[in-house]
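FAQ: What does the model actually see?

It sees only this:
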Amino acid sequence: MENILLKNELRKVLPLKRSYLIALKIIIALGLISFILYKIKLSEIYSAFINANLYLILIAFGLTSVNLTFQYKKWKLTSSSLLKESSSKKIWYSLFFGITAGSFTPARVGEYFGRALEFKDKPILQVTIATLIDKLFALIVVLFIGSISSILFIHTYYHVNSIITMSLFIVLFLLFYFFIMLLLHPRLWKNSIIDYFSSKKRLSSFFQQVEILRSLDKNYSARMIGWTVLFYSCIIAQFALLTAAFTNHHNFFHFLWAGTMVMFAKSVLPPVSLAEIGVREGAAVFFLTKMGELAPSAFDASIFLFLINVLIPSLIGVVLLFKKNNA
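And it is asked to produce this:
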């Protein structure tokens, strides 16, 4: 009886805690944006927007469809390999539902459950594991390229000793080689995970879903790395185009460089705000001003990157969700 009462109380308290957490992250996001706006005059942000190169903004906006296509290719490969799902419509819907749910939940945890909405015939744990594998490839690519860029940035702008820089590069490449070997040879770790959970009597029935990891192989990993690099490159190209548009400069190499570090900072910093709002903008302002660009232009570029790659796909997901519920 006491256990039942405790479970009922937990059901009441947990949603309340989630609401408080989301509210806190919204407040932090607004606080970060307010702080940036306090440091940068609103009139300067507006001026950078008015004087922006519209053609470059349109090209960056057009690349959103390419960006989504690469995300779809990644998720389709994972869905077909791990979940045995090949319906293009379901995979597209699942992707958009995930983007929508992830945009408005702390640390984007909603993406894991959002992707499961369209796969009602699949156990939610299997979809969660598949999503985790899909996100893992992106995280490794972002961390590796971002680490290289950050080391070069520190060496260039803070005049770090060359020996230290080279030592950091050697350690980084060794770590990257280790993780690539694990990704390309999943048999080195997947069987141990499966065996561990199957050996636990209390967990074996629940974690039977981990069996989907047996579908991972070298071919899957190699293709996932390829699609992930293309997806990542598209985002960095969009950021560079937007930065060029708002600065009216064409130093694309520096803008690509800054983009890799913005993505890196967004990935390694704790998810203190909703949809990383404020974190992305603060990182863009920091790196680009160090490179000699104006803060308002950096702010505008990062905000537009959020609008075209997160907000617009999220709205599409909302429309598809309403369409699905009213069908």
